[in-house]
Amino acid sequence: MPLELNHELKIPLDRDAAARQDFVSQLRGYILNDMAAAMRSSYETSVAPAFEREHGRPPATQDEVHDAMRSNTYFKFYSSVRYNAQEMVWRSVMPGVERELPRMEAKIQALSGSSGGTLSLDPTLPIPENVAGIPVHLMPGGYAPGESPAAGAVYDNGLAVFSAGFMGRNLDDIGLSMANYVKFRHPDFAPTKILDCGATVGHNTAAWAATFPQAEVHAIDVSASAVTYGHGRAESLGVPIHFKQMDATELKYPDASFDVVFTSMFLHELSVPDIRKFMAEAHRVLRPGGMLINMELPPNGALQPYDQFYLDWDSYYNMEPYYRTYRDQNPSGLLAAAGFAGEDHFQFVVPQYSYMAESDFIAAIRGEQRIDGDTGRLSASLQWFGFGAWKR
Amino acid sequence: MVEDLTRRQAFFESDAVDQLVTMVLELAAEQWVLRERMYVIEKAADRLGLPLGDAVESYRFSDGDKATLAAMRKTMIDNLMRSVNREHRRTRPAGTA
Q1: Which is the most buried residue in A94, A102, A120, A256, by most CB within 10 A?
Q2: Quick check: A27 contacting B, CB < 8 Å?
Q3: What's the 3-state SS for chain A?
Q4: Quick check: A135 contacting B, CB < 8 Å?
Q5: Where are the domains of chain B?
Q6: To the nearest whole angstrom, how far is the Cα of A149 from the nearest Cα of chain B?
Q7: What is the pTM assigned to this prediction?
Q8: Is the CB of B22 less than 8 angstroms away from the CB of A84?
């Protein structure tokens, strides 16, 4: 079932619109669990054995899996239904956003500053082609069509449908899981200034603010629409966040400004040269003793060929052009190139903070968590992957 | 609503199959919307003192009802299957082989 948004910018739904969103959300849950399991079974019982008969060995790479799967009927139906469901996510929320847009814009103005956050737009900022040029995630119009908060609203409301209940009560489970991992693994670390890069509307930024309430929290994104909507949303939630329209590859902050630089599901939206530029910038703006922490999809090098193929579906079919090139990178190599010493790198896997007792979460992160086929996959046994480094 | 004008991804050998999948899923969504509304109509009627759900379940079809419904079903099935049992031709421009 879609999550009901918990702030004043949420779109009121009539019964039919709510029923349609329920349907789409549940359809996605079915695709990502039932259909995904059936597709894997079809691969293991039919596609892989056929490949092995022909080649004398099992598929060794995700490309071989993908090529072998292309003619598989179940793969075609899985892909077609998933692609349609992705389109239906956005279509199920856009009429409401268009209808409510004037009220929403007025509400954002009225809320602005009520909780101590700020908004700073930069109309001169060039919008990178990877954001402006394509409908990322098949979202019509893309994420940065202008200053109207409409795209941010479509993303927020759409994510509530898309997530099928897997991403936390405020769509913030990634942020909560990452921030609480830091809090409980490093109890002596007390960040006073936190930066979330590529934050879109700040779902996960708010989680850092909640976990480290003494910290000053900033969120940046190239999309004016996302940060404008995010500002209103955060003010409504009572969370003071400083939203700025800014490119993470060219941060407008002085050296040594932050104790934490955080990203979530951001690096895979960037080309590899831009990832390198961002990481160098993160290193520059971190204070000594600070931490860069990225929540991301697990690297292909840590997964079996079928799981690589499964996760990289988005790269081929969901307008995520850099999804795979990012996942083909070695996280440690990216960190080292940015100036983070090898002995200061870390990577980890965490369960979902939102859906378990805190004591169980703490016990889990003190144990050894391994990357598996459910890491980064929206499914009932989802866990998140993170990596980063301390700055000396 | 903003329409995405980029080309859609195809997965089947014929684009027609991809288009049909879209139609089926949109129909399924609409069918669900209607089914949920009917469920709510029954529940809302109950609250208003009209036990509509019970009345629906206990309704017994007369012979006339059965005949009417059978004819409606036949028409629906005929419409649904109207393309299946017919030969299809592919018109070629005059003068081509």
Answers
A1: A94
A2: yes
A3: CCCCCCCCCCCCCCHHHHHHHHHHHHHHHHHHHHHHHHHHHHHHHHHHHHHHHHHCCCCCCHHHHHHHHCCCHHHHHHHHHHHHHHHHHHHHHHHHHHHHHHHHHHHHHHHCCCCCCEEECCCCCCCCHHHHCCCHHHCCCCCCCCCCCHHHHHHHHHHHHHCCCCCCCCCCHHHHHHHHHHHHHCCCCCCCEEEEECCCCCHHHHHHHHHCCCCEEEEEECCHHHHHHHHHHHHHHCCCCEEEECCCCCCCCCCCCEEEEEEECCHHHCCHHHHHHHHHHHHHHEEEEEEEEEEECCCHHHCCHHHHHHHCHHHHHCCCCCHHHHHCCCHHHHHHHCCCCHHHEEEEEEECHHHCCHHHHHHHHHCCCCCCCCECCCCCCCEEEEEEEECC
A4: yes
A5: 12-50, 60-84
A6: 14
A7: 0.90
A8: yes
Q: What is the per-residue pLDDT for B1? A: 66
Q: Which residues in chain A have Cβ-Cβ distances shorter than 8 Å to B22?
A: 84
ipTM: 0.78
Model confidence pLDDT, tens digit, residues A234-250: 999 999 999 999 999 99
pLDDT digits (tens, 9 = 90+) for A191-200: 999 999 999 9
For A305-364, the pLDDT digits (tens) are 999 999 999 999 999 999 999 999 999 999 999 999 999 999 999 999 999 999 999 999
Kindly state whether A87 is in contact with chain B, defined as any CB-CB distance less than 8 angstroms: yes
The C-alpha of B91 sits at a distance from chain A's nearest C-alpha, in angstroms, of 30
Cβ–Cβ contact B32 with A under 8 A: yes
Contact A76 B12 (CB under 8 A): yes
CATH class label, A166-390: alpha beta
Enumerate the domain spans of chain A.
15-115+145-159, 166-390
